[in-house]
Amino acid sequence: MTPFSLAAFLKFLLGVLLLQGATVLLVMTALNADLQKSGWLIVSLGILIGVIAAFWFTAITSHANQRSFTKASEKFNRQRDYLRRQAEKEKTREIRNSHEQILRETRRVQTRSTLKTGLALAGVAGLGVILLFTQFMTLGLLAVSATGGAILGYGFRARQFPAISQEQGAAGKLPGPAAGKQRAIEAERVVSPDKSG
Predict the structure, then answer these.
(1) CA-wise closest residue to 71 among 162, 25, 3
(2) Among candidates 123, 34, 97, which has minimal Cα distance to 42?
(3) How far, in Å, CA of 30 to CA of 34, rounded?
(4) Residue 193 falls within a domain, yes or no?
């Protein structure tokens, strides 16, 4: 149903008034004329007035329909654009929400992985500190045992050779046994200088 249009109403009213005026003029002409001679002319004139009025009203109706169609099309386009904008807003909102949710999940996963990595690194650092202290203790034990071994080695060697006597402190003489005496050390023989050989 087309809405009421004042412009179309005025056009129809003007057309109806013109049609009524033409009809009155036609009737007045028919009353004053001889219908025997000009009857066909009056009938033709009435048909012509009817055809012109029909074209007039058809044009008014077509224009009103076109105008109604244009208004309906504009309204439909506005509604379609409104729905499209609403859909775009909803789509943008959904994309933003999903993006924020992905960011939250990513942060949560990164926080968890950072915490796990931090704990793992702290464990490795603690193990390294323990190994470091163990290594220092091992080095200390190595130093103590090397020192003890050196002391024992020097003590054993000191027992093999007697201490330097107080009288043999002259310069140019080596400490040790008197010349001419032979002393055998395990697996070693000292040969006196008298024998040539």
Answers:
(1) 3
(2) 34
(3) 8
(4) no
Which among 152, 174, 155, 172 has a CA at the least distance from the CA of 164?
174
Whether 196 shows a pLDDT value over 60: the answer reads no
Task: Domain of residue 67: give its range.
Answer: 6-119
- 155's tokens: 């003590």
Q: Is 34 helix (H, G, I), strand (E, B) or coil?
A: coil
Assess whether pLDDT exceeds 90 at residue 49: no
- pTM (two decimals): 0.40
Strand partners, 123: none
Structure confidence by residue, pLDDT tens digits, 80-109:
999 999 999 999 999 999 999 998 998 888
**Distance, CA of 97 to CA of 189 (rounded, Å):** 99
- Would you say residue 60 lies in a domain? yes
Number of domains the chain is built from: 1
Residue 178 near residue 162 (C-beta atoms within 8 A):
no
Quote the tokens at residue 82.
């409104």
Q: What is the mean pLDDT of residues 23-49?
A: 82
